[in-house]
Design goal:
387 residues; alpha/beta; Rossmann fold; six-stranded mixed sheet; 35% helix
């Protein structure tokens, strides 16, 4: 997502969705591949009725734009549409707030006949649980959540792997040994990414430290830019963000500092500042989920959490400014994540207070990672949720 203007989406003619869209400032668009022309049926054999396409809807927390979190989800939606053609019809509503209005939008999606609904942000969890309980014939998929039901399951991307890889590059590129992160909401997902970024930097530069500014929103370009400038004023010369716009990278560009793209390739927004982009590829999971619906094999289960190994995360578009030894260190990490020979969260790892959170040789399991509510050593400042 970016600060640039975007084209308005065409609204559907259905009054219920139009009312919802007017309330939350969002738009809906349906897309289906055109049906292939078929040969005339033989006079003696009546044509079989063509099955109705599966209707799939996506709720987006921000605008699609041309970069960032929602952009990455929508690119995957388009890939799914291309993969399954006229067997499916996909639609989306953007700018759906993480509030009561989300329930209204999701209920409307069900009312429009969608049989598979994706909610693409953590803050939709309780609303999706309510709608799922009232819609047993519809399947629901919730991104980054942890609560499930018979017809609702969760999925996520190991974004901390992308953050760690960015940290490796940042640790090599910093001159001040001060890194900066513009953070969104203080939940384990975001805290985990801040920590992983720091651990990656420290793996190549023991003197690296990280400062954090929280904006308490996923998408707010002005606030993101202000937070980035604040970090630069505090001495940070390499910035990362866990927010959705390109404002942080653009601020780094103006200040002559370095930064990273997040969730999608943002290199065009700060050509001189951009060191690489930690991108998410949701397409493999979306194809899996839609394929299971078409086959009738969809079922709930444990959270699906994919990363580098499954092709869901990567650090791409590396700058020519990145030195050879940094690229070598990155490739070593990436290779280890792919074949399972490297674990980011393996002790000894100490918390901000210097006390061990993982002992030497101890490797964190997913339960540990999902409950992270602390900063690792090297992250400065107080965690907002800490008491």
């Amino acid at each position: 997502m970016t600060i640039s203007k975007r084209s308005l989406l065409r609204l559907t003619g259905m009054a219920s969705l139009a009312a919802t869209a007017a309330l939350v400032g969002c738009g809906k668009k349906e897309e289906a591949a055109p049906a292939a022309a078929s040969a005339p049926a033989a006079a003696s054999a009546p044509a079989a009725a063509k099955p109705e396409p599966l209707k799939v809807a996506f709720a987006y927390v921000g605008p699609v734009g041309d970069a960032g979190w929602t952009f990455a989800h929508d690119r995957a939606r388009l890939e799914v549409q291309k993969e399954f053609g006229d067997r499916i019809v996909t639609s989306f509503v953007e700018n759906v707030p993480e509030a009561a209005d989300a329930e209204r939008v999701i209920r409307d999606m069900v009312g429009q006949g969608n049989k598979l609904v994706f909610g693409t942000t953590f803050g939709y969890m309780e609303q999706m649980l309510k709608v799922a309980a009232d819609s047993p014939d519809v399947k629901f998929e919730h991104a980054t959540g942890y609560k499930s039901a018979e017809n609702l399951r969760t999925y996520d991307s190991r974004t901390y792997e992308g953050a760690y890889m960015a940290g490796v590059i940042a640790g090599k590129m910093t001159k001040s040994n001060t890194l900066g992160v513009v953070a969104s909401i203080p939940i384990p997902e975001v805290i985990r990414n801040i920590n992983a970024f720091t651990l990656g930097a420290q793996s190549v530069n023991a003197a690296a430290k990280t400062k954090v500014v929280w904006v308490n929103k996923w998408f707010d370009p002005p606030k993101e830019g202000e937070a980035a400038q604040s970090l630069i004023n505090q001495g940070a010369d390499v910035l990362m963000q866990n927010t959705d716009s390109s404002a942080v990278l653009q601020t780094a560009e103006k200040a002559g500092k370095y930064g990273f793209g997040w969730d999608s390739d943002m290199s065009k927004f700060g050509p001189s500042a951009h060191l690489g982009s930690a991108v998410i590829n949701w397409a493999p999971y979306y194809k899996k989920a839609v394929g299971e619906m078409l086959e009738g094999s969809w079922k709930t289960g444990p959270n699906t959490w994919w990363g580098v190994k499954e092709g869901a995360i990567d650090l791409v578009a590396l700058s020519d400014k990145v030195p050879a030894d940094a690229k070598e260190a990155l490739e070593k990490v990436k290779s280890g994540l792919k074949d399972g020979s490297f674990a980011i969260w393996k002790g000894p790892i100490a918390g901000q207070d210097g006390k061990p959170v993982l002992k030497d040789g101890e490797t964190a399991d997913d339960d540990f990672l999902h409950k992270i509510n602390f900063y690792v050593k090297g992250v400065e400042g107080k965690l907002p949720s800490a008491k």
